[in-house]
């Protein structure tokens, strides 16, 4: 049986992120970002090349799944809500209802949980769903995890710093 782990980059140092990966005992890492880069040196460990190298060193398979990244239009809905509330992305704790509805319509409406698991492969037993936000409820990865849990009764664990 597959288990899902959600993980973001914000709030971690490179070492604490590496430690979280090791403790997770994950074998598959699904990067749900459209763009696989982060600004600034603090989170450079989560940029594509460095992240893939770290995962190789730990023996964790890396998959980039941009089809589950929110569109720019959906991201803009959240940016506007964050701006209205005076909340920075790095400290956001929940997604707006507008973002959730848009993400559901554009990504999850046609999402097939069984097909997703089939595509990531039979060798995937503990799968990380990754994006950048610190709190899972502030990120689309939680919506994917919730869908997998609802459809297939898959256990979900959230790792936060």
Summarize the structure.
43% of the residues lie in helices and 14% in strands. The protein has 161 residues and is an alpha/beta fold.
What percent of the residues sit in helical stretches (DSSP H or I)?
40-55%
Largest sheet report: 5 strands, parallel
Average pLDDT confidence is 96
Instruction: Give me the CATH fold name.
Output: Cobalt-precorrin-4 Transmethylase, domain 1
What's the CATH class, please? Alpha Beta
End-to-end C-alpha gap:
26 Å
User: How do the strands line up in the largest sheet?
Assistant: 3-2-4-1-5
Task: Examine the secondary-structure arrangement and name the CATH architecture.
Answer: 3-Layer(aba) Sandwich
Hey, roughly how much beta strand do the residues contain? 5-15%
What's the order of the H and E elements? EHEHEHHHEHE
Question: How many whole angstroms does the radius of gyration measure?
Answer: 15 Å
Shape by Cα distribution: globular
> Care to count the β-strands?
5
Number of domains: 1
Parts with pLDDT < 50 across at least 5 consecutive residues: none
Structural class: alpha/beta
Number of helices: 6
Could you characterize what this model shows?
The protein is of the alpha/beta class. The protein has a single domain, classed as Cobalt-precorrin-4 Transmethylase, domain 1 (3-Layer(aba) Sandwich), CATH 3.40.1010. Helices cover 43% and strands 14% of the residues. The protein contains six helices and five strands; from the N terminus they run βαβαβαααβαβ. A five-stranded parallel beta sheet has the order 3-2-4-1-5, with helices on both faces. Strand 2, helix 2 and strand 3 form a beta-alpha-beta unit. Helix 3 packs antiparallel against helix 4 and helix 4 crosses helix 6. It is globular, with a radius of gyration of 15 Å. The two termini are 26 Å apart. The mean pLDDT is 96.
């Amino acid at each position: 049986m597959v288990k899902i782990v959600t993980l973001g980059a914000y709030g971690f140092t490179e070492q604490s992120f590496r430690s979280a990966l090791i403790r997770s005992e994950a074998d598959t890492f699904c990067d749900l970002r459209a763009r696989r880069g982060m600004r600034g040196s603090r989170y450079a460990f989560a940029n594509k090349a460095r992240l893939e190298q770290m995962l190789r060193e730990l023996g964790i398979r890396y998959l980039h799944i941009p089809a589950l990244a929110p569109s720019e239009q959906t991201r803009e809905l959240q940016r506007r809500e964050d701006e209205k509330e005076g909340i920075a992305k790095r400290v956001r704790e929940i997604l707006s209802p507008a973002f959730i509805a848009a993400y559901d319509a554009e990504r999850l409406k046609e999402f097939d949980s069984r097909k997703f698991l089939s595509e990531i492969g039979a060798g995937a037993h503990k799968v990380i769903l990754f994006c950048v936000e610190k709190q899972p409820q502030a990120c689309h990865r939680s919506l994917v995890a919730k869908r997998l849990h609802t459809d297939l009764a898959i256990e979900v664990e959230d790792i936060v710093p």
